[in-house]
């Protein structure tokens, strides 16, 4: 999830692990531990976009990394303080929990995480968006409240636990909402006599009320939306042809299988103004509804001056953000127009 959420989770876990012994130092180092796995994004400085996306949520988000890094980091912290409040084992425990809960939380998002790296398998439950205020804000409030009490004060532990409990309950609720909305999409497909191969459902940005579904058919992908606040459970499916044939000779280039693997097979090829684009459907559209044709993750495919096939991330127009958010929240409220 987003950096703030991971910092809050790390701080809360650090407090639960060692707060009574070291006070706010536990929250500080828990927050740092919760941030460390996402430092893999720095790979974008050294490699191309495709490689960076392949590396993200890989080794640094694995159980193996948590096991290897925790004792090293724990030893370093114990040398910084060199007192009897907490020893190397205590700090190693805190760092392991901070490092490990990060990918566990990421596993509930759309992107997923390679928890069992080096095995090439992503754990992705797709029941919460990477930024969800209903998850983060209550959690953050309780962690801040806990900070203002002395480490031995009972309210400190109480507030920290409340943050952990409420965020966990909300996560469980989103799993239930995913199960419920999946049934709505499936029923509509059957009622409209649409044959399909697979369905993937996930929440839309910043909420767990409006859900979207990607449906694979023989020659195309269907995308649909459903809000829990809608008056009728009748869904309109928008069709996007796969157009995989447009790749032509490009399909034989090693870059294409990498992109296909990255998208887990959920992709379309789009030709626009004599430019070819590889659209990764897993992260949805820029906007909602039938008028939204652009996708969040899209790569322009072209041969550079050296004849090497290159994938460049498609530029996004940030000026469209405000109207897109307005349409999103209107759709959350059940307005289809």
Automatic annotation (TrEMBL):
Q: Which InterPro entries match?
A: Transcription_regulator (IPR053170), YdjM-like (IPR007404)
One Pfam short name = YdjM
- The reply on keyword Transmembrane is yes
Report keywords, A-Z: Hydrolase, Membrane, Transmembrane, Transmembrane helix
Q: Which residues cross the membrane?
A: 63-82, 94-113, 133-150, 162-182
List, in alphabetical order, the Gene Ontology terms for molecular function in this entry: hydrolase activity
| PANTHER family assigned | HYPOTHETICAL MEMBRANE SPANNING PROTEIN, MEMBRANE-BOUND METAL-DEPENDENT HYDROLASE
Q: What is this protein called?
A: Metal-dependent hydrolase
């Amino acid at each position: 999830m987003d950096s703030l959420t991971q910092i809050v989770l790390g701080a809360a876990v650090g407090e639960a692990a060692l707060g009574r012994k070291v006070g706010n130092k536990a929250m500080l180092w828990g927050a740092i531990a919760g941030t460390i796995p996402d430092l893999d994004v720095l790979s974008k400085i050294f490699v191309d976009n495709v490689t960076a996306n392949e590396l993200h949520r890989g080794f640094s988000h694995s159980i193996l990394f948590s096991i290897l890094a925790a004792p090293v980091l724990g030893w370093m912290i114990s040398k910084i303080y060199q007192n009897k409040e907490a020893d190397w084992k205590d700090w190693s425990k805190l760092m392991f929990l901070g490092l490990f809960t990060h990918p566990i939380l990421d596993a509930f998002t759309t992107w997923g995480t390679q928890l069992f790296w080096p095995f090439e398998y992503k754990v992705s439950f797709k029941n919460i968006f990477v930024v969800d205020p209903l998850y983060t804000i209550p959690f953050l409030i309780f962690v801040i409240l806990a900070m203002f009490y002395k480490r031995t004060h009972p309210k400190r532990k109480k507030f920290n636990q409340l943050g952990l409990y409420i965020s966990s309950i909300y996560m469980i609720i989103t799993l239930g909402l995913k199960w419920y909305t999946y049934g709505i999409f499936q029923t509509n497909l059957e009622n409209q006599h649409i044959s399909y191969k697979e369905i993937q459902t996930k929440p839309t940005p910043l909420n767990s009320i409006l859900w979207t579904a990607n449906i694979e058919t023989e020659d195309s992908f269907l995308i649909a939306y459903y809000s829990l606040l809608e008056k009728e459970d009748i869904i309109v499916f928008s069709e996007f042809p796969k157009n995989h044939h447009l790749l032509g000779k490009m399909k034989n280039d090693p870059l294409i299988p990498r992109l296909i693997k990255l998208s887990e097979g959920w992709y379309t090829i789009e030709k626009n103004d004599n430019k070819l684009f590889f659209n990764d459907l897993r992260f949805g559209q820029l906007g909602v509804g039938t008028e939204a044709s652009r996708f969040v993750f899209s790569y322009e495919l072209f041969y550079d001056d050296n004849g090497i096939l290159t994938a460049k991330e498609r530029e996004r127009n940030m000026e469209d953000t405000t109207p897109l958010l307005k349409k999103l929240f209107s759709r959350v409220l059940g307005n289809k127009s």
